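Please check this record.
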Amino acid sequence: MARASPFKNDAVTQGAQDIRPIQTSVTVDVLEKCLDRIALLITESGDKGAVYLPIYDRLEAELAALKAKDDRMARIRERVRR
């Protein structure tokens, strides 16, 4: 017999069986938009905005890595065409 959840009235758990992960590709455009939003959040939060700097840093690093990968793949495709 299943145990009752202590959160049975919680909106999150009521439809938990219906939750499906969102399948989305992380693209340069997506990361750029995320950086724009975090930058706005940081600047609008004043001194408290510094709390979001690790998120901004992570997004910047992910963007740089994705651009580097895309660049490598383009060079590889070019090499094959020669």
